[in-house]
Here is the input.
Amino acid sequence: MNEWKEFTILDFAEIHNENRVPLSKMERVGRQGIFPYYGASGIIDHVNDFLFEGEFVLISEDGENLKSRRTPIAFKANGKFWVNNHAHILKGKKDFHNNLLIYYFQNLDLNPFITGAVQPKLNKANLLSIPMYLPKDEIKQKAIAYVLSSLDDKINLLYRQNKTLEAIAQTLFRQWLVEEAKEDWEEKPLSCIAEHKKVNVRPEKNPATIYNHYSIPSFDEGKHPVKELGSEIMSNKYQVIPSSILISKLNPRFPRVWAIPADIEENSICSTEFQVVYPIQLKYYGFIYCLLKSKQIIDELIGAAGGTSGSHQRVKPEDIFNITFKMPDLDKVDDFNKITSQHWQRINNNKNQIRTLEKLRGVLLPKLMNGEVSVQCKDNKNLMINE
Here is the structure.
């Protein structure tokens, strides 16, 4: 550690908080557009203008997430965008500094720098007082950023591949089974090809058991279930069935449909906001998933939703299983399944790779940041990790 020293954030970045402008919800309603509007934990809206252009790092200024860390407190914003006054905005002085800042904050205990018992806050003065212990040698700093960003690049590539594969399946579904639907195809309810599986689980009765929890937040934060002890889960859940599809009954304007693979882990459970849809035959798996994500079904569920406000509107389970669609010939379903089954398998394989890479990154991150592991890097091509 003799080759390490204490830096400040301003050694690596410029701060641009003076250019932030908050917009109220009512102001944003009148300014809807294509440019992301960022808050403390990411994009919260889109507006018709931008304040920043380029690649920046946003660091949460306030909110419960500073302590819970359910979502990243330091993240990139790219392109043209707007930022409110709930996120600090920094720009690295060199190309690799943005990545270095993000990884440093991912491994940092922020508690000594947070004020406010009710509303946690990381003010500008405390942010700039945070020491950054890093190698003196810029090449070694760059190597740390390079190793971790290479893992992130691979993870992001796999996410993009999955998005493309799913888009292809959705396009085939729309063309073959919606736009080219035959007049003699009968109108059928979802309940004709799927069962409603509703097996209740009380995790708190098994406090030492580790559950694989498919929750609404985990869907929103990247579609990965989270591992939680039964003692940490205080409400009733449903058992998740292999090769099923989860669909949220909460706020159908923002559809949440989760394809569950055949090889899920033991003790998999989901929020009761999800309904477990199980195909009566496996060949309907991809068909049902694409159906539940189709515009026709989303619009139908939005129309059926009840509640006092948009964010608290829900559909009834029976509304989901009573939705109707044109039932294709079985040969057509078989053809669709033969093509798309390869897509679902590859998507699942990619998800497994993503989990493996994320675990590797999680192990390497603290070790690289505290000097337990070092990286030798001459030209960003020849890397050697030393313990």
